[in-house]
Structures are given as structure tokens and as C-alpha cells.
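User: Please go through the entry that follows and flag anything odd:
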Amino acid sequence: MMAARAVDSPMTPFAQATRGRLQAQVPLAGLTSWRVGGPADWLFQPADLDDLVAALRDHATHAPQMPVTFLGLGSNVLIRDGGLDGLVVHLSGVLNERRLLEGDRLLLGAGLACAQAARFGAREGLVGAEFLAGIPGTVGGALRMNAGAWGGEIWPLVEAVSTVDARGELHTRTPADYTIGYRSVHGPEAEWFTGCVLQLAAGDPDVGTRRIRELLRERSAKQPLGLPSCGSVFRNPEGDHAARLVEAAGLKGLRHGAAEISPKHANFITHDGSARAADIEWLLRHAQDEVQRQFGVHLEPEVRVLGRPGATHEASEGTA
């Protein structure tokens, strides 16, 4: 990996060179599953955990006023067209360790794709994490939002997590350090997950692998996987389903610019590759408003909307 050059300006995130890659004004659309979004002021991909720790320590003394955002596979974020202020740390492809531990446990790096984690566990004869194959993000992203699918969630499996804080200090924490709910995790501020240990159960590798294939077939049949999306846009409200509410509000198939509430699954917003983040955000807010108006239910987004609005973008609204 190309080393970043040493920098001295207070407008840069680091004072010293890193072993990772540091770039300015990098478009983020290609790093998100929605394939939209403006540039990062600075994009940093660390070489490894030690490099990440050193870089954050440098940043804490050299540019502490500069915000830091961690990005994995970009599947649970909508980055606005104006891009992101400050430093974006890109972990996809980094911190991707996977290791079998004694006692039917897995050690997983935060940058590892959830699908890779599921397949690794199944191959090692451990069951309980097959649902991770249907989560289009990294382990770190799954930990941040208590991601789940098909009735499973990641945090009930967690024995311990490792984190790094804004000063570059490493921590080992347990679930007791967090308040965990449905698609919700609250814990120590200004810390980011670097990995976890999952407690699973012994099982038949063939059974686990078959289960993953069955789940992926079901996902493919029900979800619009061939188009850019973030996966599910809204959390399911208690006792109901977001997709049912959006469809009942008459919004399934609604277009705004090049973005569309999917005709296949109303809790997905997709596009043909030409949408802007503003188109997607308009549909997201419109769906919230209409479901609230018609049914008195507030839909809480699963996706995080980040960054600066872009230039005014006039998009025409179609009909369902």
C-alpha cells in the first residue's frame, strides 16, 4: 500500500507520514452501496491496526478540531452530494482478521464483510451466525447498529468487542458497557469498533453452509439486489413492518429524479446509477412524512444521513 507523504499544514489530518494511504478530495460514491455522495476532505485507509492507532494519536494532537468518520462497506449510510467534512477512515479490506478460538468462538475484525464472517463460521463447524450472510456491510458496521436479519442479531452473540478512541487508545469492552436495542447501540462516545469475539455453537459445516445458501436465495427473491441501495431504509416499528406501511401509503414505485422506492420491496430505495443523494434523501423524507400523516407512525431510518448538501438539484417527481 502506498505510504502517505509527511504533511505539516494544520489543514491536514496528520503531521507525520503513515504506512497507509492518505488522499485529499476523494469521491465517496464508489465506496458506498448506494453509489452516491460527494468527496471526503481527506480519505485514509490504514495499513493495519497499529497504523490506525498511530494515525489517530497523531490526529489528536495535530488536528483535534477535524471531525473523524469511520466507513466500512458504506451500506448503512447516505452521504450527501456535498461530501464529508474532515477525515474519513476507510476500513473495508483492512482489519479483516478471522480466527477460530477455543470454546466455539470466533475472533472477527471490524473491516471483515459480514458475509465472509458467516461463511467462515459455517466452514469451521459453528452455527448461529448464518444470518450475517444477508447483511451487506462489515462486522464493525453490524456492531454499530446491532444489525440483524431473519430473526437474528449480532449483539446477542457478542462476548467482547475491541475499540479504538479518538486519542488512539485501545479498549476491550463487553456488552455490559453498551445499551443495546433493536438496530440501536449506545456506548462510550468517540470510540470505533476494531473487532469482536462471537460465541457460537458447534454444528455441522454442511448444515450451516446450506442454511446460508437458503437465506441468500430467499433474499434474492424478495429484495432488489441488482440495483444500488443501502438495504432496508427504515427500522420496523414495533408490531409492524416498514415496507407494509410505505406500500400502504401508496408510495411503492414512487420516483424522484432517478431514485425510486422499489416496486419489489417498499423498504428499499434504488436507482439506475444516475441518481444523486438528494433524490434518495427526498424519497426517504417523503416516505417518513406520508406514513406519519396517514398512519401516525414515525419511521426511524436504519441508514445514517451524513455530510453537506450539494448544489440545488431540481428533480422531477414521478408517480407510482
User: Anything to note?
Assistant: The mean pLDDT is 92. The helical segments are 49-62, 114-123, 139-145, 205-222, 242-248, 277-295. The longest strand covers residues 191-199. The CA atoms of residues 255 and 318 lie 5 Å apart.
